[in-house]
Each structure stands twice: as C-alpha cells, then as structure tokens.
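Researcher: I'd like a candidate sequence for this fold, 204 residues long. If you have to choose between options at a position, lean toward the conservative one.
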C-alpha cells in the first residue's frame, strides 16, 4: 500500500469523523431544542393551570369572606336596632322620673321608678350580652352612658330619702336631673354617631 493511498484513506476517515461529529452535534442540538420547547410548553401549561386554580381559590375565599361579613353586618344591624330601642326607652323613663314636671293623674313616683329601673336593667343586660359586636371605643361610650345613668339614679334616690327638704336635697336632685337632661344626651349623641358609622351612614 502506497503512502498516497494511506494518506487519502486517513483524509477520508478524518472527513467522515468530522461529518459524524457535526451530524451528531446537529442532531443533538435539534433534539435539545425540541426538548427545551416541549419543556417550555409543559411549563407554561402547568403555570396557566396553577394560575387558574389560584384564581378559583381566591374567588371562593372572597365569596366566603363576603358572605361572612354580610352575615356579621346583618347581625350587628339587628343588635344596634334592639340596643338603641332600649337606650331610648331607659332615657325616656329616667327623664320622666326625674323631671320636676309630673303629669297630674299619671303613674305614681314609685311606679315610674320601677319602670325606669326595669328599663335600665334591660338595657344593661342586653348590652353586656352583645358588646362583642362593638369595638372598645364604642363599648366605652355605652359603659359611660350606663355609669352616668346609674349615678343619676343613685343621686335621685338619695334626694328622695333625705329628711331635710332644704337646699341639700334640692341640690342633690338637681345634680341627678342635670346628668339625665344635659350630660346623658351628649353621650347618647356620640353613641348614635358610632351606630350610624357602623350602618354606613355619613355623620352630618
């Protein structure tokens, strides 16, 4: 075998090897590209599915929260309506009891006192059973309303029990009447403003 044949053979083999390497790289690159594209497509599909599931979960959670809030708001409206009735009743009863203007032929002082005491008990009991529906600021106002009313009640009864009918008895009664006629309405207006805020009405 001549060197020329050997040289040609090696050249052909080298060219063939290069071609094989080239083809291998080309095929591998093509396969890799195809795998990458398929992976991207699968990843996008998985991503889209996950997003849709997330959106569905968020819609469900939003609906549940909206439903819960709606029920809570409806319950608070009922509590406010009932509590405000009791505030109005006890406020009126205390005013009638402690006013120096009494209706002739109307209920006796003892009857009015009993009615006012019952109304005060009804208000306090209902408030204590439902205070969880209100924030601490509003609870403080309602507690202040009760304390002011109770203080007036005690002062009024003290004035009625005093043997002396002079200045001290009159001043004690006046202090009770002032608490009911002047101080209590101020607290009541604050409570009304808070109630309107909860109900979604603008304060005038």
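Model: Candidate sequence:
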């Amino acid at each position: 075998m001549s060197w020329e044949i050997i040289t040609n053979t090696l050249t052909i083999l080298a060219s063939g090897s290069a071609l094989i390497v080239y083809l291998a790289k080309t095929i591998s690159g093509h396969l890799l590209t195809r795998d990458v594209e398929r992976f991207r497509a699968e990843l996008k599909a998985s991503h889209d599915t996950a997003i849709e599931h997330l959106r569905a979960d968020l819609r469900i959670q939003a609906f549940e929260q909206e439903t819960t809030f709606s029920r809570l708001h409806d319950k608070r409206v009922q509590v406010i309506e009932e509590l405000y009735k009791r505030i109005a009743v006890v406020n009126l009863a205390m005013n009638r009891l402690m006013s120096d203007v009494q209706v002739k032929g109307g209920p006796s002082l003892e009857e009015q006192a009993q009615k006012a005491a019952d109304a005060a008990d009804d208000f306090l009991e209902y408030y204590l059973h439902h205070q969880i529906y209100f924030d601490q600021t509003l609870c403080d106002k309602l507690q202040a309303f009760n304390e002011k009313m109770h203080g007036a009640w005690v002062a009024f009864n003290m004035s009625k029990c005093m043997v002396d009918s002079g200045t001290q008895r009159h001043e004690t009664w006046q202090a009770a009447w002032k608490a009911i006629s002047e101080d209590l309405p101020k607290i009541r207006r604050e409570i009304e403003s808070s109630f309107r805020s909860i109900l979604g009405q603008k304060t005038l």
